[in-house]
Specification:
Blueprint: H1 2-31, E1 38-44, E2 54-57, E3 61-65, E4 70-74, E5 80-84, H2 90-93, E6 99-106, E7 109-115, E8 124-129, E9 135-141, E10 154-157, E11 162-165, E12 173-178, E13 184-189, E14 197-203, E15 206-211, E16 218-222, E17 228-232, E18 248-257, E19 260-268, E20 274-281
Antiparallel strand pairs: 1-20, 2-3, 3-4, 4-5, 6-7, 7-8, 8-9, 10-11, 11-12, 12-13, 14-15, 15-16, 16-17, 18-19, 19-20
């Protein structure tokens, strides 16, 4: 039995190595040299399932979301510190909710965008403990009349006491909610449209948004004025006839890497069997 297990482990390791080599080569072809970034590490195979949607940071660690999971890893992205593979509680599953999108963290609490994908009746923001990743028991149902295509992303602006959340089809702005009560406060309108937003994070008066548009572009929005600035593309290969051809652009966060603030993006590879975290020097785009 032990011999069979050893053979299986060797075969699995070999297969994983082939996947990494294959996807790495394809990603290089599709991504091109569109903007200089630092590879902050990634995963392949089954581990991709828990790093396929959102990314944020509490300043001490990195937190990821998958479609139904949460994972917290060390600041250098190398060690798993906590994992919750069944993060959607039964009471929300009973409402048809089966998808976690973008995430954000504030004062030790994760705010996660949850939805009943393709049905769009129950857009929800659920709260989790940022250390243990356990559901706190608190959640807020948003208006399906506002969020007509779910809530793919959420981010917290703790300094101003508000939460920003998106809609799958909304490209002209973000909805604003009170951080304490989740009361709807209105909209922040963008100066120009931003399509297919997958995630966002607030940092120093700017809302940084990651998209899954044709080049998986990343934008900044001035919170005070709504002024939009396109920062960079994540892929150079453009093919508009097959959705997600060339991989998928996911959430973004801002964190300090080696003493320097970076816009960090979660990227799903071409074959959807790997996920990588990239760091782009913030100073390069805020001149």
């Amino acid at each position: 039995m032990a011999a069979a297990i050893n053979v299986f482990n060797k075969l699995f390791a070999s297969l994983l190595g082939l996947i990494l080599a294959f996807t790495g080569g394809l990603n290089t072809v599709f991504n091109g040299n569109v903007a200089e970034f630092k590879d902050l590490g990634g995963v392949a195979g089954f581990e991709t399932l828990v790093r396929s949607q959102g990314v944020t940071t509490d300043g001490e660690s990195i937190i990821y979301s998958g479609k139904s999971a949460l994972e917290r890893v060390s600041a250098d992205n190398s060690e798993v510190l906590a994992i919750n593979t069944k993060a959607i509680p039964a009471k929300l599953e009973a409402m048809g909710i089966k998808h976690i999108g973008g995430i954000s963290v504030c004062n030790g609490v994760i705010y996660a965008a949850l939805e009943d994908s393709k049905v769009w009746r129950h857009p929800v923001i659920a709260l989790y403990d940022a250390k243990t990743l356990e559901f706190t028991g608190s959640y807020y149902e948003l208006s399906p009349e506002l969020h007509t295509h779910g809530v793919p992303w959420v981010t917290v602006d703790g300094e101003n006491g508000v939460v920003y959340a998106g809609d799958g089809r909304k490209s002209d702005g973000a909805f604003i909610y009170d951080l304490k009560t989740m009361e709807y406060l209105g909209e922040m309108r963008y100066s120009s449209e931003i399509a297919k937003v997958q995630g966002g994070e607030v940092y120093n008066g700017k809302l940084y948004l990651g998209t899954n548009d044709i080049t998986r572009a990343v934008y900044s929005v001035d919170i005070a004025t709504g002024e939009v600035q396109k920062l960079f593309d994540r892929i150079g290969f453009k093919y508009k006839y097959i959705e997600n051809f060339g991989g998928e652009g996911e959430d973004v966060t801002v964190m300090t890497v080696e003493g320097e603030p970076m816009i960090c993006t979660l990227q799903i590879g071409v074959t959807f069997t790997d996920a990588t975290l990239r760091g782009y020097k913030l100073a390069e785009f805020e001149k």
